[in-house]
Model the fold of this input.
Amino acid sequence: MALKIRILPRWLVFLLDLFLVCFCLFLSRSLKLNFSWPHIVVGLRSMTAVVLLLNAALFYIFKSYAGIVRYTNIEDTSRLVMVNAISSFFYLAVNIFIYHSQNFFTLQVVTINFFISSFVIISYRLAVRYCFQFYKLYTEGGRKDKKKVAVYNASANGLHIKNVMNNLPNGDMQVVAFIDDTLSGSGKLLEGVPIYNTTAASIEKLKNEGVELLIFVTKNIEKEKLNIIVDACLASNIRIQQVPTMRDWLNGKLDTQQLQNINIEDLLEREVIKIHNEAIYTELKGKRILVTGAAGSIGSELVRQLLNYRPGLIILCDQAETPMHEFFLEVQEKYKNANVKAYLGDITDRQRMEHLFEVFNPQIVFHAAAYKHVPLMEDNPSIAVLNNVLGTKNLAELSVAYDVEKFVMVSTDKAVNPTNVMGASKRIAEIFTQSFYNYLTNDLEQKDGGHSTTKFVTTRFGNVLGSNGSVIPRFKKQLEAGGPITVTHPDITRYFMTIPEACILVLEAGVMGKGGEIFVFDMGAPVKIADLAKKVIRLAGKEPDVDIRIVYTGLRPGEKLYEELLNNAENTRQTYHEKILIADVRQYNFDDISKRVDKLINTARQHYTMETVYLMKDLVPEFVSNNVNYEKVNVEK
Done:
């Protein structure tokens, strides 16, 4: 069993340092006088007294004795050099103003003493440090028993983590390499540790040298580079983890148990969209803004971002009591000066919504409330129509009646060539609001010269990371339960976007919209869900189909293999923002659409399932259901 080495008392280090500075001055004077003893002893007592008093004061002021010797670092050595430099100047001053012509502290003696004392005091500390490290290495089994680790990147943070990891009591990890593109190169070392670049060949070399884990010490890394490094590590069976932020360290200290797995969301996220549009601030500042579905994933993030533009009032509307209560408390705590009102209400309840508009008279409406879960809506098409179509119709008509300036509806890519009830219901909501706006701005003006000032804008995008019901939280729960992870089809793909990114684009599109547009967002490249599942498993340090099985359950009723942002009959136009496009869609006659939508809603109120689906297909000819129960529902052409 290894002996427990105690830390030397500070007073002992203090006395040892005083003894060494006296000895070094004696040695320096001896060298200058060629070890002539009769000359050396002249004035030795008074010189020793000056050295003791002066250095004792300096050691006390700078606390040079307070550091733990075995952990001596660059700050400790710098402090010792500074003390020696100050004491050297005082020696010369004492020689000039006190001893005058006796020349006890000559320039030569002081110079020699500075270098000798600095060398001796620092060297004994470093010797103790390295002896302790070798002792620790020997007693704890040496590097061969420790897990070899690489650190990204070779910065001050990386070096700090390396020192922390290598000096953890009873630590089971040893940092043996850095990975960094900016500082990498043949033969480059950082405190004796080699630096490699981020290429797959370098990572494979690390694997061959026994590295089992790569630790990221920063989250400020380009997403493309992060994915390249992670893919290379996963291909070489090197685990990936990250260090939590320093404020999350337990008691201000890092422990290997605090290392966290890389989140799959970090890999799917794209570079943060930076929008500096003064028009957003101008349009939203001081306004009364209604957000429906405010307790949901998109609605709540919209509210958080809207609060940055200092609106006069935000009305949070949702029918889910508990989520609304929790979110309202969050807003009150984080935005103490914000004027926010919570309003419980169902958007299908016309009287309740009319009460909302009468009391608060909103100027801008962000309509994010919707039923969105495809399997549930397949089994309950009448509810999908009532919430997504009737709810939108109520809000659109009330917005016009109460002179709302702008109505921004959040739609979905599932509204494009829909294969399910949910997507078809959102497409009908799009058709109604567009035709309603065209009627208000064109047909109504031609009939009686009247027109509405309300502008209707639709935004359309795909899946958002971390939203309620998203596939990734489900994968994580299945992984924690030991599997299996379920995927509907080996080839199914989806677009992904972060919630903040989606919401900032909704705000941007809402402001730039002049009325009647359907804005489509650049969702990036689609992601294969099966590959996503495999990466989730590997990031947890397990092997797909070995440790955790992947089971393919088959497409659910109404589910698509591939999502689309445009149908075959739609084209797009560019806007001033490269991430936002305008879809050119088919125009509809409002009088016809209004009658057919009313018939659909009345049928849905009776909860006639097949009749409801029939009328949805009649309104959206491109709706080709993937649900075997609804395939037989054909619309006569």
User: Anything to note?
Assistant: The mean pLDDT is 80. The radius of gyration is 36 Å. The first strand starts at residue 147 and ends at 152. The chain has three domains: 10-139, 143-262, 278-463+496-526+557-631.
